[in-house]
Amino acid sequence: MRKALWVFLNLMAFHYFLVFRTNAMVQEKAEATIPVTTLSPPEGNTTFLGGTTWCVARPGASPTDLQIALDWACGLGKADCRAIQAGGPCFDPDTLLSHASYAFNNYYQQNGNSDIACYFGGTAALTQNNPSHGRCVFATSSESIKASAASSWEHKAKSIWWKIDVILLLLYLGQR
């Protein structure tokens, strides 16, 4: 009984160490971003021409190149592509051009609105025309994207750990 309690308490301590370490790593990652020198002011999505910019897919781009760029943006690029999944507010129109535009803009906003963050192998271009439509809102502020990404990560981490807590508690109670 005493050994089981000791094991349970050590597992719980290890669990909380992992949770706090994960949160610290997320915060470190956000603080460790290297600023890219651009001609745009760093505090928002504005250009010297005096307008807000969005990054969208080029209509004449090859579908193969667009798909590769979209896959990269939603994968290694870490753009938040949940809105273009089935049932999401930006799923319709269900076209490669529309989905790529949303993902490209999300990546562009997360990465400081720099020209290089809207290249995607030549498949993307900057626009001053807001591509938002209906319920689908294209972001204009990298801060709002970072905040939603961080809260999404924290929610996922918490939802996993409470399940582990329940399993550990059941294992502990089962040994009694």
TrEMBL record:
<dbReference type="GO" id="GO:0098552">
    <property type="term" value="C:side of membrane"/>
</dbReference>
<dbReference type="InterPro" id="IPR044788">
    <property type="entry name" value="X8_dom_prot"/>
</dbReference>
<dbReference type="InterPro" id="IPR012946">
    <property type="entry name" value="X8"/>
</dbReference>
<dbReference type="GO" id="GO:0009506">
    <property type="term" value="C:plasmodesma"/>
</dbReference>
<feature type="domain" description="X8">
    <location>
        <begin position="53"/>
        <end position="138"/>
    </location>
</feature>
<dbReference type="Pfam" id="PF07983">
    <property type="entry name" value="X8"/>
</dbReference>
<dbReference type="GO" id="GO:0005886">
    <property type="term" value="C:plasma membrane"/>
</dbReference>
<keyword id="KW-1003">Cell membrane</keyword>
<keyword id="KW-0449">Lipoprotein</keyword>
<keyword id="KW-0732">Signal</keyword>
<keyword id="KW-0472">Membrane</keyword>
<keyword id="KW-0325">Glycoprotein</keyword>
<keyword id="KW-1015">Disulfide bond</keyword>
<keyword id="KW-0336">GPI-anchor</keyword>
<feature type="signal peptide">
    <location>
        <begin position="1"/>
        <end position="24"/>
    </location>
</feature>
<protein>
    <submittedName>
        <fullName>Glucan endo-1,3-beta-glucosidase 12</fullName>
    </submittedName>
</protein>
